[in-house]
Amino acid sequence: xxxxxxxxxxxxxxxxxxxxxxxxxxxxxxxxxxxxxxxxxxxxxxxxxxxxxxxxxxxxxxxxxxxxxxxxxxxxxxxxxxxxxxxxxxxxxxxxxxxxxxxxxxxxxxxxxxxxxxxxxxxxxxxxxxxxxxxxxxxxxxxxxxxxxxxxxxxxxxxxxxxxxxxxxxxxxxxxxxxxxxxxxxxxxxxxxxxxxxxxxxxxxxxxxxxxxxxxxxxxxxxxxxxxxxxxxxxxxxxxxxxxxxxxxxxxxxxxxxxxxxxxxxxxxxxxxxxxxxxxxxxxxxx
Length: 287
Ligand SMILES: [Zn+2]
Hints:
Elements: E1 9-15, H1 18-23, H2 32-47, E2 52-55, H3 57-62, H4 64-72, E3 76-79, H5 92-106, E4 116-117, H6 131-137, E5 142-143, E6 164-167, E7 170-172, E8 177-180, E9 183-186, H7 190-195, H8 198-210, E10 216-219, H9 228-231, H10 238-245, H11 251-261, E11 264-265, H12 267-270, H13 280-285
Parallel strand pairs: 1-2, 1-10, 1-11, 2-3, 4-5, 5-7
Antiparallel strand pairs: 6-7, 8-9
The structure holds zinc ion (ZN).
The site of zinc ion has 6 residues, from loops.
């Protein structure tokens, strides 16, 4: 049973503030997240593309208007948790509390249901599969949290590559990997998008489409902010600043290229969440 519209890719944006989400979870959320997210919104508006924004509710709590603006542009709003703590540091109880808090903050800001969740650092892995029923029971219909490759910091090497019902009542919409010579390589997101030449990203997405799958692309607003890694005053190791700042200048250009070349829609319009046909906006325009 096909549960999604292949050939329509999904653009996902993890809305978080670099110094708080990456450098140190105890630091405050800075206002840079506003300009950076608005930059992403402007680019999407230019291409008339709508996506799914997984918003960290610590950001939403501080900047509720930002979330209203995301929703007003027709994007889907999902949750990226509250604190950006990896699931490996949480228990079923603390995750449940965090998801509950996140939904209490996000729901009043958007008219549509908040159906999707993305775990911080793609931290649904072999050791954290206990999180799946917790995510479902919090009220989410899908999670987009598994990177189906053997990563150094995350990933499940033999996880399924296409959206599927991972436990009864919860779909998993995995991040994109491309299979090359028996290896699974991550593509089209975050550092992989920043580091790889665009022609490789294009090749990977075409290959995924040839295999009748959709590509889930992810970006962070801060990846469009080249100056940030040097502007942040908080203690951050040099290698982190170098790695995380590398090629941020190219993100905007690559995003424009992706959006003009491939078709994208929010996750909830590509994946069947309620057992019926995919929602009409995608079905009507599908070619
Ligand atoms: Zn994140």
